[in-house]
Design goal:
The structure holds 2 protein chains of 2 kinds. Chain A contains 11 helices and no strands. Chain A has helices at 2-13, 15-35, 43-76, 79-86, 90-123, 128-155, 159-184, 193-201, 204-215, 226-231, 236-258. In chain A, 42% of the residues are buried.
Chain lengths: 266, 451
Amino acid sequence: MAYIWKEWLEQVRGKGLWIGVGMLMLASIFLIAEARSYPTDLGFEALLLSMFDINVYFIPLFGMFLASFSIYQEKELKTAMILLTKRESYLSFFLKKSLAVQLSLISTFIGAYLILAVFMKGFLVFHVTSFLYFLLIMTIFLVIFIQLGLLLGSIAKTRMQLIGINIIIWFLVVFLIDLIFLYYLPAVTYQNVEVFSWIYFLDPIHTMRFFLETTFDLFSLSHLSQLMEKFLVMDIWKFVLINTLIWPFLFTVSALLFHTKGAKHD
Amino acid sequence: MRKHSPLQITGWVILSLMILLFITPLPTLAAEEGSLQQLIDATPANGELKLEGKVYKGNIDITKPITIIGQKGTEIHGEGDNNVITIHASDTTIDSVTIKYGGLSRDSEEEFSGVRVMGENNVLKNLTISDIYHGIFLTKSKQTTIKNSHITGQGEGKLGDQGNGIHIARSSGSNIIEDNKIQNTRDGIFVEYSNNNEINRNTVTHTRYGLHYMYSNDNHFSDNHFNNNLGGAAIMHSDHILLENNEFSYNQGSRSFGLLIQASRDIEVYDNQFHLNQRGLYLEQSTSNRIEDNDIFHNQIGVEIWASSTAHVFIKNAFNKNNSDVVAIGGYMGNEWFENGVGNYWNKPMFDLNQDGVGDSTFQYTSSLANLLEDNELAYLFLSSPAINIYEKMNAMFSNNQIMAEDEYPLMPEQKPLSIYTVGLIIIAVFSLIYVYGRSRKKWPIFGRNG
């Protein structure tokens, strides 16, 4: 509990969280204004999908930055060292810190979405179930990228290194992976499409978007071509579950294996 | 006289009752079945039959001009082995009736329907039809009106298991289909070998194609809503069709489109809205179609034209916020993107120094996506990816982009005043920024306590 309260106070008193939430809300408000011109029947769901597309930029960026700096500062300010020499193992320290960062960041972002929901309800036909699906997916999205940030903060030795690695990973996740997919797409055939499917859906951005658009009825799974039938190797919610479990677990294990105990000054 | 004991008498009575029970026909299905048919048979030609608010058993045949009017709760249930209502006559009206349980078998001489119309000048209105193969089937029918009816199909399963909402076959001449709602059928309205019909103000959702023309010329459809289908409307092998003021939206799937024009010519597409579809318009093996004054907004691809499709004229269309406005697969073929000094609204930055409402230089829409989309259907999965812009820029840098459309007279968008809502949202946004800035002036620095 002490970890959570301390983390919450640190995040709330810092600028980073508010800049992130502020930018997200600002962009979302403009999307809500635009969504008023959408045809009404699925207008709300189309807005949520557009908001997801905006979050693809914001969540990895702010989730990773805020989480990685939070754990890095524990090393830089020697609080981690004090805790680790007295009573904590790195495992328990990292797990408690993870829980604290996850809870404080997720609750703030969810709070921001709930405030945005007031605007949505004011301007659009609000569908509670769709909004809850959206919140669920954004929570999973935050969990994955916050945990990735905690890994980066654990392994970084200097502040410059941390900033650099954050930017590189963000660029990789948001742009580069899809760019690689696009260049290799001509090599995908009916014979190897199942392998492609697994690689495609192990990217949480792809999986979460596909889950939302199929759940919202914005992408039809009826009358599919044979290629698409084979591409969908299993129900999309199973891929959501796999992403939810596998990535945070891998990031946690990696952080425990490769963490550095102290911070060097640039 | 021999006396019978009370036990014997009771036995005889029970036996008599049982024999009576077996030899007397049950006053259920057959009687009720007969009753509606008898009521119809008893109604004189051009007479009116008012039904009670209860369930009547079909199937029924109508062989003379009559008017059947139901009320709340009036239902006609078929036997599940044929058409529920077959109209052989002309000048018949059926009004305010719920029709259910037509034959679903496909191992039969014909595909059954809720109502099969074979006469002329019939009116079907305020009907609710479900649990059938086809909803309403018109064969060699003229001047039939289908109005204000609600048809629900068998849902999403195998395509062959689903019939069409309204099937118009070999019925040329002033059939009017208007104000209907159709959902969960194979095609919402399927028109084959039928010319000169009107289809207006219908709403079709969750079907394969909302409206499907095959070998049907000189038809008109307007003010319809085609939402959430595999394809909004498909015009195939049909010429001289006018469509205006229709809304094609949320037709999403890897093969989806708002409007498909295939192997057809002289199609006029005016004042329609194509919003949030996989492809707004999809043109294939067609020629000489005119696409004018349409709003093509927020689709994955605004217009997809295959090289087999030529000599189309696109003017005064507004392209806005599509992931890709135009994709010409197989190369840029002779389609006209302007006519008599009028082009399209591209909503891209351009100069209009002489303020004549037309951009000062030719607008070229270039893209490298055509080859990618032609090669692999899965490319559609990446159209909303942030990487797609970088992909386009990289290909432009290496001169791999191809011209998709060339407009010598690009139109400048009209400047609209800000709405009160937008102003309100901007004020909220500004105050949010001030708040965030205000917090940033406090002593706590970025990313934590002392960072």
